[in-house]
Amino acid sequence: MGEVRAGGGGGCCPPMNLFRSESMQLVQLIIPMESAHVTVSYLGDLGLLQFKDLNADKSPFQRTYAAQIKKSGEMARRLRFFKDQMLKAGFSPKKSATQADINIDDLEVKLAELETELVEINANGGKLQRAYNELVEYKLVLQKASEFFHSALNSAAEQQSENASRQIGEESLDTPLLLEQEMSTDSSKQVKLGFITGLVPRQKSMAFERILFRATRGNVFLREAVVEDPVTDPISGEKVEKNVFVVFYSGERAKNKILKICEAFGANRYPFSEDLNKQDHMVTEVSGRLSELKTTIDVGLLQRDNLLQTIGDQFEQWEFLVRKEKSIYHTLNMLSLDVTKKCLVAEGWSPVFATKLIQDALQRASFDSNSQVGAIFQILQTKELPPTYFRTNKFTSPFQEIVDAYGVAKYQEANPTVYTIVTFPFLFAVMFGDWGHGICLLLATLYLIIREKKFSSQKLGDIMEMMFGGRYCILMMALFSIYTGLIYNEFFSVPFELFAPSAYACRDLSCRDSTTMGLIKVRDTYPFGVDPVWHGSRSELPFLNSLKMKMSILLGVAQMNLGIILSYCNAKFFRNGVNVWFQFIPQIIFLNSLFGYLSLLILVKWSTGSQADLYHVMIYMFLSPTDDLGENQLFPGQKTLQLALLLLALVAVPWMLIPKPFILKKQHQDRHRGHSYTPLESSEDNFQLGANHDSHDHEEFEFSEVFVHQLIHTIEFVLGSVSNTASYLRLWALSLAHSELSSVFYDKLLMLAWGYNNVIILIVGIIVFICATVGVLLVMETLSAFLHALRLHWVEFQNKFYEGDGYKFYPFSFAWTGDEDE
To answer: How far apart are CA 194 and CA 54, in angstroms?
Structure first.
């Protein structure tokens, strides 16, 4: 996923901090030419430096190392050719434990020699295979055509004997009058017929026959015989169903037409002799040549397989070496030449903790390359916004990817991933609450985790790769689903008395299965989750609707408050007092004056058991704030509190809107009166100040633009507070839909099949129930709940504090080259 590994850091790296991105610094390296290659190689092994392209104005062909990149590309092309040949031959590259110690120049020569040898073997094998296929077709033509001529000779002999018997017998009225004239015709005046033999594809045979007839005006005689098994075509090399044909013709013009038609239809022609002795001799000769060719082809295939086996043993090491070499020269092309043309100048971003590691790598490179001058490392001061770098592991990586899909965090702003690790699977589970379905999801995830090593080394499909990458996210979703399922007391929609017997019992038999009105409390309250007695009663839906709807509002208001508190953390971190006083405080007041108060009313109603109508309370808080609450009063002083909260909410709106643009204008004027020229501080403080500076520092301050932006932000927050709170009701809606679908599948499939007392119907019902549960509840409902939880985090939670306009830290690392396609 999005993991960035600090290779070689070991214990030198500080503990992982996911709330703020790593402190970054812009560094400059001055590297001697003789040690440049080794230096970049060591930095790639380290994987903690993101190079800047200092030659962006040059085309790839104008850069210093264009020839070396072309050479590496040619080696990569040869390796792709070898890989294709291995796949065709059924080989797969082997992972070798020993590291090949080979120079890149020697590898280039070796790859060229292997390519030449392999191409020659393939060319010879192709020629031999084509000759073999032609001989196979020729043998079929000899066999089928000889059958034609044998049958023709037999019929001619029968005709002659019949005619002779007619001459001996007495003449009758039925004897043709011209028979004697026909019999006495001069043999020198008889027409001499020629013939052409070959094979034509069976699907073209009808058209072939039709075109022959039309082209020669019917002056041909065509005989065809079906070849039972498909034949390998010599030209295309594919298996094709064919027919053997013999075309008899008269005259050279007819012959030329037939030859052109054969060529147009892809019919392969072969010579054939009328002499029976020659036919037998040719069949024997062709059979002998076939056996010789077969032996030669087998020897060639064995030689090719041995060569591919040799290539496969070292293929992965060669491929990594070539990719590494190519990436090194790509990076060297991003460096600029010094004026003396003896040094290369590099600039790039690195984490502050990596300073010592980079300096050690530079020293090792200078020593290993026998360079007389070492590389120079220095830190540059800049106001440019650094990249964002979070060090993640296989557990936190999928959650970081969820946040990054919305937008990469600005440098060192609060990272929502810290809270998303818990809140995302929890909100998913609120909509997916069923501990039976949660166990199914858990088992599927545990299978991915147990076989983690095997799957990580395989090439997976797009969907499977996505699931495997997010396996720990799905694990958390499954665990939270089991937890919320126990609270809802649903196991495939069936309630269980897991923690204690139900607290209620029927007053008499008439109340059973009808309503909860006839129930009386006989025991202590059910200790954990929903009492199982609610399930299946007429009051189940109203009770669960009320519970889940109020719970959704509580969760939504809590998460939105968390988002506003994180905006305060950002403002304090970047030392932005304006955002604290004129954004955080009015926002927290406005939200809690309305929806925080609603949450308080829900909690008070639950704890006191009051019958107050909260809809009525909230509506008339705005329409008639001075009216008495009457029976809807939940606690003393409620009316006074409502008036105070309403006044605070009204004051918070202009508090957000008006002061901030004027304060920003005054700050801009103060900076341009000389306050902007301050001494340079440390790089970290400088970046924080740079991040805090408004984008209008070096431009003309447009008060109207700032005021309109603040107006839009204020309107968005005020309206968004209402719409976002309502948006959290999707937790209630999807939880209800999941529960009802599960109940329908259980009642209408499983229990209905059980009621027939028929084994076959029961088996069919179980199969349909399993398919419906897996297909609808475990696949479609999982995807639906995942997308809704995603929306709640992206829109309702992150828009309170998260800017997400940064860019990722992509260090130069050889760990990334294995995942890239050429």
So the answer is: 78
